[in-house]
């Protein structure tokens, strides 16, 4: 038996793909592993040129390596993404070992090939997961979930990837990556009609490559509705509560069932999604707390109106936004004889008067106006984009609304509060202090005029 035949018998037993190519670049030997990679038998490939299996573009990249081995007789190792005639694309580790004749001339080469596509795809998934969990630090970036889904769809060879929330028996797609199915983000479905309900029942990662034969799916309404043969999904757990499901699916069966590595990768992607969502919730809580604190800081505790700090900011912004045709108007308002009310009935009753009176004010102004408690019984109304005529109508409504307010005491006594109002239109040179000062001066004129009236500042007011 020749040495070559013995060598070929040994190579035939190897799981590694091995082919022998002569100087004409034709296959003279392939083992079963190599032929099976193309869904062929060794006999199908013998004598055929390498160009029968490689795309033109890939062959042009591989040919210089062939030439180098045949011309120099050196061994060669390289890795490359190779596209085949059937459209299949794989990442391969390749080694070329030259064979020499008795004169030392290269007469052929052995190609030892490892398909490392899954390995490099796994590395890509791992890199993305690492970036989401670690490199982004504590900065929230929900777009990371879109990245994970895209990588997952490509890695698993499926049609769609989703991260979906579950609440009150409703399944909502929050993030989605798909080019083949019409399920946009925001889509809501009855939970019972989804594959996710099967995951929830199992309370664990589940997968199938043959849903039509899988007892967990074949009679389930999810398969009856959507007919997806391939599915893998894992629960998304936030603070020990099932928030939703990370799932990947495909209309048809995959060529191979999910491998253990793919299953673990989906688990890891689920952990990464949990990390992003949990951080997003923390950030949302912090923002909500900050907003709540801002509301408290700018809100008068008694009346619920804006306080002085907030009111002055509103006034400042109104002065900035004013234009030549319609500026803004500031009114300073004071409850008449309020000290007497406090002295006679007590501060609790005084508080009731302020609450009822300011409630009436708020009902009387326009939606664009702001009622502010400056302090004690003194209030301010900022009327944005208002002229003298329109502001007069609003302020008169305010005065009348307070006058018509009735506070009935436990003793049966009735208090009808009134207010004095001083108003000023904005001027080109105004700042917050100048316009407020004029309105305040007009308020004292209203007091001297008998109270319960609206008085406007004039040119004599500073």
UniProtKB/TrEMBL annotation:
Stored PROSITE patterns? GGDEF (PS50887), PAC (PS50113), PAS (PS50112)
List residues of the PAS domain.
3-73
> What cofactor does its activity depend on?
Mg(2+)
Report the catalytic activity. Answer: 2 GTP = 3',3'-c-di-GMP + 2 diphosphate
According to its UniProt record, the EC number is 2.7.7.65
**Domain spans labelled GGDEF:** 326-459
TM spans, by residue? none
> Can you name this protein?
diguanylate cyclase
* Organism of origin: Idiomarina abyssalis
* One BP term from GO: cell adhesion involved in single-species biofilm formation
Q: Any one cellular component term from GO for this entry?
A: plasma membrane
Which EC class is the enzyme in? transferase
Note the InterPro entries from the entry.
Diguanylate_Cyclase, GAF, GAF-like_dom_sf, GGDEF_dom, Nucleotide_cyclase, PAS, PAS-assoc_C, PAS-like_dom_sf
Q: Extract one GO molecular function annotation from the record.
A: diguanylate cyclase activity
Which residue ranges does the record assign to the PAC domain? 74-128
């Amino acid at each position: 038996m020749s040495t070559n035949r013995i060598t070929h018998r040994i190579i035939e037993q190897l799981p590694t793909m091995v082919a022998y190519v002569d100087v004409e670049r034709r296959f003279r030997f392939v083992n079963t592993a190599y032929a099976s990679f193309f869904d062929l038998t060794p006999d199908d490939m013998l004598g055929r040129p390498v160009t029968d299996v490689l795309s033109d573009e890939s062959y042009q990249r591989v040919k210089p390596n062939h030439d180098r081995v045949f011309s120099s007789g050196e061994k060669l190792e390289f890795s490359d993404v190779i596209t085949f005639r059937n459209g299949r694309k794989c990442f391969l580790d390749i080694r070329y070992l030259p064979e020499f004749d008795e004169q030392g001339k290269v007469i052929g080469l052995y190609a030892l090939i490892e398909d490392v596509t899954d390995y490099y795809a796994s590395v890509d998934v791992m890199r993305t997961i690492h970036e989401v969990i670690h490199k982004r630090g504590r900065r929230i970036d929900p777009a990371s979930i879109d990245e994970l889904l895209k990588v997952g769809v490509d890695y698993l060879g499926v049609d769609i990837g989703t991260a979906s929330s579950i609440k009150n028996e409703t399944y909502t797609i929050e993030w989605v990556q798909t080019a083949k199915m019409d399920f946009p983000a925001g889509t809501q479905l009855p939970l019972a009609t989804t594959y996710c309900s099967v995951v929830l029942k199992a309370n664990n990662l589940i997968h199938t490559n043959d849903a039509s034969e899988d007892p967990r799916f074949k009679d389930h309404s999810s398969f009856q509705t959507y007919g997806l043969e391939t599915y893998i999904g894992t629960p998304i757990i936030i603070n020990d509560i099932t928030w939703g499901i990370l799932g990947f699916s495909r209309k048809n069966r995959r060529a191979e069932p999910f491998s253990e590595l793919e299953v673990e990768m989906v688990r890891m992607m689920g952990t990464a999604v949990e990390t992003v969502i949990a951080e997003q919730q923390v950030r949302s809580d912090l923002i909500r707390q900050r907003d709540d604190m801002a509301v408290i800081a700018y809100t008068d505790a008694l009346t619920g109106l804006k306080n002085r700090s907030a009111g002055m900011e509103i006034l400042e912004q109104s002065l900035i936004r004013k234009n030549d045709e319609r500026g803004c108007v500031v009114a300073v308002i004071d409850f008449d004889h309020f000290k007497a009310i406090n002295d006679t009935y007590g501060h609790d009753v005084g508080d009731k008067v302020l609450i009822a009176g300011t409630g009436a004010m708020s009902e009387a102004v326009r939606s664009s106006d702001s009622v502010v408690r400056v302090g004690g019984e003194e209030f301010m109304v900022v009327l944005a984009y208002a002229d003298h005529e329109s502001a007069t109508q609003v302020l008169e409504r305010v005065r009348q609304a307070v006058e018509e307010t009735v506070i009935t005491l436990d003793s049966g006594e009735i208090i009808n509060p009134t207010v004095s109002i001083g108003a000023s239109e904005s001027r080109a040179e105004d700042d917050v202090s100048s316009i407020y000062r004029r309105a305040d001066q007009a308020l004292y004129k209203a007091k001297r005029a008998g109270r319960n009236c609206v008085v406007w500042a004039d040119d004599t007011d500073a």
